[in-house]
Design a protein that fits this description.
Helix content: over 70%
Shape: elongated
Number of helices: 5
Number of domains: 1
Number of strands: 0
Low-confidence stretches: none
Largest sheet: none
Strand content: under 5%
Order of helices and strands: HHHHH
Structural class: mainly alpha
Distance between the termini: 40 Å
Length: 150
């Protein structure tokens, strides 16, 4: 039986997987298997996103010590204590997987920033219109602010 948290987690997982798999499929269709760094990080994101959902399901099944009072903890049976220990280990693993997923997505964007910088530097020599220069300047400012934020 699912609770609202599980329903939300699976719905967000579905949306995220659709976006990531469409991205990967589009890249394979566009350039084949001549991938760049951001494509590999997208694959890693699929793996870590799936691992994160598995950890959430295991925490939901076994429970964890989070939010448990001392009185409740002292009344646990040995079997329930073993389940809580497993759930707490899954909670720790879930945090590690979550942080890895965040860094994986960050490096994915970093590769895109590096790629955009290379495109800007390559096209900086061939400006023919003021619009091209303005677009390039706006992209350069956006990349600068992104680098300052991360």
């Amino acid at each position: 039986m699912s609770n609202p948290f599980q329903t939300e987690a699976w719905a967000l997982y579905g949306v995220g997987m659709v976006i990531l798999l469409v991205r990967i499929t589009a890249r394979c269709w566009q350039i084949g298997l001549r991938w760049q760094g951001d494509d590999y990080f997208a694959i890693l994101a699929v793996i870590f996103f799936t691992a994160e959902l598995v950890m959430l399901e295991l925490i939901g099944r076994y429970g964890s010590i989070t939010g448990m009072s001392d009185e409740v903890a002292l009344t646990l049976t040995p079997e329930r204590t073993r389940q809580i220990v497993i759930g707490s280990k899954c909670l720790l693993a879930g945090w590690v997987v979550y942080m890895t997923l965040i860094w994986c997505r960050k490096y994915d964007v970093e590769f895109l920033v590096i790629l955009q910088c290379a495109i800007i530097c390559r096209s900086a020599i061939t400006f023919t219109h003021a619009d091209d220069l303005t677009t390039c300047a706006v992209k350069a400012c956006m990349l600068f602010f992104y680098k300052r934020l991360t």
